[in-house]
Amino acid sequence: MNDLLLITPTEALAVVLGTVGMYVAMVVLVKVLGQRMLATMSSYDLAAVVAFGAIIGRASLGEVPRLAAGVLALATLILLQAIAGMIRVTRSGHHAVAVPPVLLMAGATVIEENMKRCHVVQHELASRLRQAGVRHRNEVAAVIFEPSGAISVLRRGDGIEPELLEGVRGAEQIPPELLR
Asked: What sections of the protein cross the membrane (predicted)?
């Protein structure tokens, strides 16, 4: 019965190292490939996330999963999330972990280079504009690709407060008449 539940100290170390390695690999891949893959999930994206979880779980738990290994892997993931949260609140840690928001549209102008960088295609942008109630591109003050992978649409009106654009890559391209 103990063979099904318990693990040796060496196996415990292997579980922790495997879990840390898979967590770091996933964080790096999301940072490199773009947070877009985890933002708004289609059925294909959901299937990929389930597969990611299975791969991470299999690599973390080893060939013969045991209850103790599963609990240890889960505790390690929770600890890594807590550490990442503490790192994100520091200025240098935020820059290392977080991805900055990126300007996709400045007024009615689509910034193609930023669209490519963020892996956003025209039909996704058009869909988000429709969801925001935009009927004409000239109603747009700015469209921003957020660190979460979401797309924010700011409409023309009273002007955008500069504080809302702090840290937005490409914000200098917004026409001055659209700013407050």
From this structure: 12-32, 67-87
Which pTM does this prediction carry? 0.64
**What is the torsion angle, in degrees rounded to the nearest 10, for the CA atoms of residue 141, residue 146, residue 152 and residue 156?**
-20
What domains are there in the chain, each with its CATH number?
Answer: 2-97 (no CATH), 102-178 (3.30.240.20)
The first and second tokens of residue 157, run together, are: 């009106």
Could you write out the DSSP letters of every residue in the chain? -HHHH---HHHHHHHHHHHHHHHHHHHHHHHHH-GGGGSS--HHHHHHHHHHHHHHHHHHH-SS--HHHHHHHHHHHHHHHHHHHHHHTSHHHHHHHPPPPEEEEETTEE-HHHHHHTT--HHHHHHHHHHTT-SSGGGEEEEEE-TTS-EEEEESSS-B-GGGGTT-BTGGGS-GGGB-
Written as one letter, the residue type at 155 is R
